[in-house]
Specification:
The chain has 109 residues and is an all-alpha fold. Helices cover 70% and strands 0% of the residues.
Length: 109
């Protein structure tokens, strides 16, 4: 599936207040779902010695799907396509790699 196709199709399930004019809802949803991914990894380390199995992969895949949904909604709210966002990210990372600045801090390094 292409990213823009996902973005368009996922939008048909956006049921939140003022969809189309609401940056806050998808931003909060994104942070919540990312936190759920982090919590699953934390519990994997705490309870299972960090051993990844198929059940863990499936659970995290579901949470990552939720993260992707919120990323798509936030991008839509901002008038951005997921393909634009992904392409710009790869260009940024390639530039940082070429300049030896993949590590460090700051958005514009």
């Amino acid at each position: 599936m292409l990213l823009n196709d996902y973005q368009l199709e996922s939008r048909s399930t956006a049921r939140y207040p003022n969809a189309g004019e609401n940056l806050i809802y998808p931003t909060l949803g994104l942070t919540g779902e990312a936190g759920e991914v982090a919590d699953k990894v934390k519990k994997l380390i705490r309870d299972r010695g960090g051993v990844v199995d198929e059940h863990f992969r499936e659970d995290v895949a579901l949470e990552l799907g939720d993260v992707l949904w919120y990323v798509a909604q936030l991008a839509t709210e901002l008038g951005l396509s997921l393909e634009e966002v992904a392409s710009a990210n790869l260009s940024k990372l390639k530039s940082r790699s070429q300049r030896g600045t993949l590590q460090g801090e700051g958005d514009h390094r």
